[in-house]
Design goal:
about 25% strand; alpha+beta; five-stranded mixed β-sheet; Deoxyribonuclease I, Chain A; about 350 residues
Length: about 350
């Protein structure tokens, strides 16, 4: 009986979301429907189908047919199978540390780059990894992780995995979600089309992760909205559109009942906070509130961590110590987070809700 209910639910969700068009969350086992990087610099990154010792085994594909934008963001049958394997009598509580970090793209510190005062990217990557270790970060959203940095991170950062995989990091998009493999495993990896400089579409990552010890599920995403600069001009229009798409994603994932931790360099100290929290109820470990009137944190940065209102924030720091200052022109933004499964029953229990 349960199988029939799940099947009917999956069909209903497909019909409901088919025309939504803002999200393309494909499984690690179905990259064939992506556009190629030769056709567009914003080709959608995705995990590859074959597993190596440094990456998780691919989950079952959602469908053998080519995926369309707006297809279900969650496979109810897959989630039900995962939950059935969890042997925990009481709703678990997951305490972890999440971060957002703009690494400063490799070419910025190369000869002729915009940041000549910094060391080369390789040295800075090692410093960045050291900063993550010191802050005990378990889950991080990177921005400006160019392909050369992604390949080096995959080779050097033992005990870490990432989405998209290093071979699929978009040369222009450069956003990555990474996690410590001892604590988390990848269930599904996908992307969201976000407007970047001058409206160019960049596919930015969303990963559905499973906490290994408890089986609790969480979405993690990483974004980079375009900055207004003398060379690029005023990008306010495209930041606003990027924010609209991010709000739409939050609202859609909210209906799954699975917590969502959003990270990013949004290139706005307050406006993005006010729009996102006002439309979604999201909160930030940096503080601030939105009860009809937006009250941003006292000292906002342009780098943010956000999460559902049921998320409990236990710590926050915008780290700019000597190591971070040598590694990047951005702070390492860190948040302590507590995910209580009693507040997210659909992220842990055997029940499957309708998105």
């Amino acid at each position: 009986m349960a199988g029939v209910v799940v099947l009917v639910l999956a069909i209903w969700v497909t019909g409901f979301l088919w025309a939504r068009g803002d999200l393309d969350l494909s499984t690690a086992g179905a990259p064939a429907s992506e556009p190629t990087s030769e056709a567009s610099s914003s080709a959608a990154p995705s995990a590859t189908a074959s597993a190596t010792p440094d990456e998780p085994a691919s989950p079952p594909p959602l469908s053998a047919a080519p995926r369309r934008q707006g297809d279900p963001i969650v496979d109810p049958e897959l989630l039900a199978e995962l939950r059935e394997g969890v042997q925990v009598e009481e709703p678990p509580v997951v305490d972890t540390v999440v971060a957002s970090f703009n690494l400063l793209g490799a070419d910025h510190s190369e000869p002729g780059g915009t940041k000549p005062g910094f060391a080369g990217w390789s040295t800075r990557l090692d410093l960045s990894m050291r900063a993550l270790d010191r802050a005990r970060v378990s889950l991080v959203g990177f921005q400006e992780m160019q392909p050369v940095q992604a390949r080096a991170f995959a080779a050097r950062a033992r005990g870490w995995q990432m989405h998209p995989q290093a071979s699929r990091v978009d040369p222009a998009g450069r956003n990555v979600v990474a996690w410590r493999s001892a604590e988390w495993e990848l269930v599904q990896g996908g992307s969201v089309p976000i407007t970047y400089f001058s409206g160019e579409i960049m596919n930015m990552p969303v990963a559905l992760l499973r906490h290994r010890e408890t089986g609790m599920l969480v979405y993690a995403s990483s974004f980079h909205n375009p900055a207004s600069t003398p060379r690029r001009g005023n990008q306010l229009r495209w930041r606003d559109e990027a924010t609209r798409r991010q709000i739409a994603l939050v609202q859609r994932l909210r209906r799954t009942g699975i917590p969502h931790l959003m990270t990013g360099d949004f290139n706005e100290p307050t406006k993005h906070f006010c729009r996102l929290t006002g439309a979604t109820g999201f909160t930030s470990p940096a503080g601030g509130s939105h009860d009809g009137t937006c009250r941003p944190p006292a000292r906002p940065l342009i780098d943010w961590i956000y999460g559902d209102p049921e998320v409990e924030w236990t710590a926050y720091a915008g780290i700019r110590d000597a190591t971070v200052r040598r590694a990047s022109d951005h702070a390492l933004v860190v948040g302590g987070v507590r995910l209580d499964a009693s507040r997210f029953p659909d992220a842990w229990s055997g029940e499957v809700v309708t998105p």
